[in-house]
Design goal:
mainly beta, Porin, 14-stranded antiparallel barrel, two-stranded antiparallel ribbon
Length: 380
């Protein structure tokens, strides 16, 4: 059990700002956490990797290229495991192909912040009030092949964030919002080269386009994490047993930059905040040109990830990745490692994160795992 300060600490991991750093922040920040072990082991990327059951989070258009007719997957990610043992992200996803060209999927992501004890005096903690703040997202998507090599998908999402402590503020309510997204995915046929053959892949995902989220009728609201992912990859197929996939992904939040100075009583700038009077669509367009230091700072708002996956006989995989973010925009830099195993209809994936910067990562040295169940006949 934790005190109320723990809740503030958890939110703070996604809200790191000071006078030198202009981190772009949003509501429902748990959506930034990679929900599955395979993508997590590739440097938190998945927009242009091969299709799997967790495509709902990264690029729903990939469902049109899944190898099985039906699949279900579950993943579990311990959070801040060095400090507590009851904070976690869980993901449950189901997809189904309804024809050779079309598929649909639904997913649930649930983020629990554990149990928090509420009290104002030491005596209150003898029999404390217990709160269990949480957040969740429900996604539904439909993917359709527009040609043999290209598909697109639409997605609808519902978000609920219950972080307010009811016992400390009776006027607090859970916040909720809705959003839509659109994505695309390209996968070539196998192309022969001199000493190997290969498959090209590319993808994009524009997600979480929706109204701002706020907890109270009066007060400021937060942008949803409207996000643009762009990626490309190539599979080196050496023979029928050995394959190496390399992928690269760029990512940008399409919300306004913190550009309004915050000053103290002496007029000194202590930090920056996002403008309050910008709407959703205008915020998306302004996000490409509103950074205080101009185009050079806009480039720093892109993160990038590089990943490699070696597959043997479609049954065993070794993975590694690297994620990079500018020092000005959060300074997240980490190396990821992972492995995957296939037994009959079950895929088991594991991942591990090693921080490569001074910023403490709440997932550092944490083992994460996912299970996928593949049903029905193979489509490809």
């Amino acid at each position: 059990m934790k005190q109320f300060t723990t809740l503030l600490l958890l939110v703070g991991f996604f809200q790191l700002t000071n006078a030198q750093n202009r981190v772009v922040t949003t509501g429902v920040p748990f959506l930034h956490i990679a929900p599955d072990a395979r993508s997590a082991s590739l440097g938190d990327q998945g927009v242009a990797t091969s299709a799997d059951a967790f495509s709902n989070h990264w690029n729903p258009a990939k469902y049109a290229f899944t190898s099985n007719e039906t699949g279900a997957a579950i993943s579990y990610t311990p959070y801040l495991s060095k400090l507590v043992n009851d904070i976690f992200l869980a993901d449950l996803t189901y997809y189904r192909a309804i024809s050779e060209r079309a598929s649909w999927a639904v997913g649930l992501r649930y983020f629990s912040l554990g149990e928090i004890e509420i009290g104002k005096t030491p005596a209150d903690f003898i029999n404390p009030i217990i709160e269990r703040p949480n957040e969740f997202a429900i996604d539904a998507s439909y993917a359709l092949k527009l040609s043999d090599n290209f598909s697109m998908a639409i997605q609808g999402s519902f978000f609920n964030s219950d972080l307010k402590l009811q016992s400390s503020n009776n006027e607090s309510v859970a916040a909720s919002s809705v959003a839509v997204g659109i994505s695309g995915f390209y996968e070539s046929f196998e192309v022969p080269y001199s000493n190997f053959s290969g498959i090209w892949r590319a993808g994009f995902n524009l997600s979480n386009i929706g109204p701002k989220i706020k907890y109270e009728d009066e007060g400021e609201s937060d942008f949803l994490p409207t996000n643009l992912k762009l990626g490309a990859g190539f599979d080196f197929i050496f023979d029928s047993y050995n394959k190496l996939a390399i992928s690269l992904e760029l990512n940008k939040l399409l919300v306004p930059s913190p550009s309004e100075p915050v000053t103290d009583k002496d007029g000194n700038i202590t930090g920056y905040k996002q403008p309050d009077d910008i709407g959703i669509l205008s915020g998306i367009f302004k996000s490409f040109g509103d950074a205080p230091d101009g185009f050079s700072e806009e480039l720093k708002e892109f993160t990038w990830a590089l990943g490699a996956e070696f597959m043997y006989d479609e049954s065993f995989a070794l993975r590694a990745g690297y994620f990079n973010e500018s020092e000005l925009k959060g300074a997240r830099k980490f190396i990821t490692l992972g492995a995957g195993f296939k037994y009959n209809i079950i895929d088991i994936d594991l991942s591990y994160l090693i921080s490569a910067t001074r910023v403490v990562n709440p997932l550092e040295n944490t083992l994460r795992f996912s299970l996928t169940f593949n049903f029905g006949e193979e489509r490809y």
